[in-house]
Amino acid sequence: MATYAFSDVHGHRVPLERLLERVSPADEDTLFMLGDMVDRGPDPVGVLRICHDLKNVRVIMGNHEDLMVAYFQATDDPMVKMNWEINGSYTTLSGLEALDEQTRIELVDWVINLPFGAVTKVNDRFYIMVHAGIRPTGSLPQDQLTSQGVKDLLLSQDPEDLLWIREEFWSVPTGLIDENGVGPIVIAGHTPTAYLEGMANYLERSPQGEDGLCRQVKVGACEATGGVADRWDIDSGAAGGAGFGQVSMVRLDDGEEFYEPIAEGE
């Protein structure tokens, strides 16, 4: 049984399909989708439906899903509509409007009920799975390094931070990993890794590969964390489309990363 995480597909259904076919998760594997399935790319509804139908997937609310939910819950509010529009709503809204009413209602209701985060354990380490990040709270006492203790930490966070936080998360350590390298790692998206330079310290590598495309980056490995990166950014820039980003996935069990570049029109 393996555990995978991916995030910020932003409507790029075709490369997501290629990625899933190549990775070919087994039925007993677990997948975490960390939000921002929608907006910007050509087929957000296709991405929604894939993520909805995947076996053993746990989908987390992203800020773009939250914008979509706000629109459907307040369709007569021009500010809510404008806020979603300036964040790339067109392809999502047009795709949803093309569905029959029952399918649209079921899909939107599913999104409305998505959680803001999740906790999982792989190889004796806890991982906090959120869309954007967490607000640093300091270390967890040893007796709170339990599934419930880490879940309580997640529940104590402001949902707005889980959806939108950026500099305040990537620029400072979480404080959750001690000098022996013990503690939970936070995995998030939201911030394309290309933007981490100048925002975060202790990047494991350049956010862009030799091909110039965004790739996943681990952040924060230093003496204070026992050399363990306390934050993983898995937003490989799909929102930027062809020539900038990729759709990607990471397997937590061994850290292997999988990428599918985005072609023009995909």
Any overview of this molecule?
By secondary structure, the protein is of the alpha/beta class. It has helices at 13-23, 44-53, 63-73, 78-85, 90-97, 101-112, 147-155, 159-164, 167-170; strands at residues 3-6, 30-33, 57-59, 117-122, 125-130, 185-188, 217-219, 231-233, 246-251, 257-261. It has a single domain (3-261), classed as Metallo-dependent phosphatases (Purple Acid Phosphatase, chain A, domain 2), CATH 3.60.21.10. The protein contains nine helices and ten strands. The strands form two sheets. The protein has a five-stranded mixed beta sheet with strand order 3-2-1-9-10, covered by helices on one side. Strands 4-5-6-8-7 form a five-stranded mixed beta sheet, with helices on one face. The radius of gyration is 18 Å and the shape is globular.
Features:
single chain; 266 residues; alpha/beta; Purple Acid Phosphatase, chain A, domain 2; 5-stranded mixed beta sheet; 30% helix; globular
Summarize the structure.
The protein is α/β, with parallel strands linked by helices and 266 residues long.
